[in-house]
Amino acid sequence: MPTPITIGGPFIGINQTTESREIDPREARDALNCMLDQSSIDARLGFDSGATAPNGFPIEGTHDYRQNDSTRIFLVKAGPQLFSLSGTVFTAIGGPVLTAGNLAQFLSLNNRVYIAHGGTPKVTDGTDLFDWQITKPAFAPDAIPNGAIGDGMLNGEYDYKFVFFSSEWGQESPASPSTNQADTTAGLEVTTTVTVENQNVELTSFNTTLDTRVDKYRIFRRKVSNFEADWFFITEVDSTTTTFIDRIPDNNVDTTDLAPLTFDPRFPDIRFVATNAGTVFAAGIDDEPNNIYFSPVGKTVLGNFFTIDDRITGLLQFQGELVVFTQSSIWLVSGNSVGTLFPRRTIVDRGCLAPFSIVPVDNLIYFLSENGVYAYDLSRVFEVSRPVKPRWLSRNFARDFLIKGVHDWENSAVWWVYSDGTSVTNDALLVYFYRNSQVVNKQSWTRWDIPGVQYCGLITDSLTNLREIKLGFDDGQVTTYGDGANDDGNSIEYFWESGQQDVKTPTVKKRWHELESEIIRKNRNDFMNASIKIDDRDNFEFVGETQDVVNEIWRTRLSRRAAQLAIRWSAQLDGPFRLVSWNYMVDRSARESRR
């Protein structure tokens, strides 16, 4: 008598590293556009028509900018241009000054968004675009004694620095050089200090700036005669100031607020940025690949740096630590200042090759290494991509810096968009279902195909406050994933292909009688095809399609004699379905059955 063999969920996903006939019946030899976070095989969702950037450049970054008044602005990088997108309307922010061909990393801080993109770092308030750092003053004010002896509060030898400051932006420039004392006898200015005795100090000839953000000057003073090494904050004045009389006693100086460093105002081109404990960290500098720059606490001026063992490939703030990825290792950095920074290497033999593949999820960080995707829990790493390793190893390694990962929190999955083979665009997508992996106790993967997609990012909708994934395409289109059952009106191709089933008798010819599937339609007109592959044949042959049944049980005759049988379910173009389970009737006998 024929024996019924039933296969049901939860389903595992693709396994391309184990021999086809040895994989679990719930696994797929290959699958496309399938969802696996249910006890069934479902089709992925589609996306809406969205909107297209006016310049038509590929989308290379998105950011959910939430201002202090709770206003949300959706920022989009399309090639060299930054836009805001509201509904279907793109509005340009600044000129085309970003670096095309690089993904952007955004950091919201002090009600502004800082942008690392491989070129001169930028900052925006949602309406305009500026250089990240305000250019430093080229020179400090002149400093001369003021007032007759006995009139002033100062005694000793002093020098001064000042910075341009934006009170609205909470941002200051690097510090000016120290003051010049006017030598009226020689008619020259020399870089030196000013010495007073019971006098004031008059500061004149302030350097000005065209930066429209600047509305204040912050003035710092050092008492050289007391062997002070730092310049301490003494006051803040309006940027229209041309003369200031310093009457501030030494005991009124704020010794906790130090002048920023004086350095070249053009900060190096950075690719990665993160913040931890109030300090901004930046890295990814081509000429300084091992350096991490950092700011003073609560500020954005990047002056000091420290060095890691290898080329830095990513920064992430995670669980109170700064996580630093290099090509060959992983570091944790605690602390937030020169005196408290403590870098320590936690992983010595596994690094990250794709900076934007780094995706934090709950207590793990997923990232792409040279061999595949790994998970990191701040103490160890373990691979999660073994079943689909052949696909990861066939990627275009030269484009790893453009691989983009995103957390699909609603479906408990992580996506990675990458370049397959020798492709010069991001034309492939692999999805890891982490919750399903825990349920089935195996790594749960499938591949998706969204033609033209270049970028994926998670944002919060300004109207619904729901988290959603935005897709960016190579023609500048931005769409919302999950809006609709198709891809902007186009049908979604999907299939599930089993391994070779042999009922534990791989060499015995068996009679395969009937295939029965339980499906759930998403509309009454959905159709599904079934095909089979016998023994070692290369191709699948069509055996039937679903009919418009009421109870969603579909049966089709097989009437084949073979040692092994693989089954493939695929969609017709009418619409998606959900595959709940299937069973087939097989006669294990070596004799051919008689009718």
What keyword list fits this structure?
single chain; 595 residues; mainly beta; 8-stranded antiparallel β-sheet; 6-stranded antiparallel β-sheet; elongated
Describe this structure in words.
The protein is mainly β. It is 2% helix and 47% strand. It contains two helices and 50 strands. Strands 15, 16, 17, 20, 21, 22, 23 and 24 form an eight-stranded antiparallel beta sheet that branches. Strands 1, 4, 5, 45, 48 and 50 form a six-stranded antiparallel beta sheet that branches. Strands 2-3-44-49-46-47 form a six-stranded mixed beta sheet, with no helix packed on it. A hairpin with a 6-residue loop joins strand 46 and strand 47. The protein is elongated, with a radius of gyration of 32 Å. It starts with a strand and ends in an 8-residue tail after the last strand. The mean pLDDT is 90.
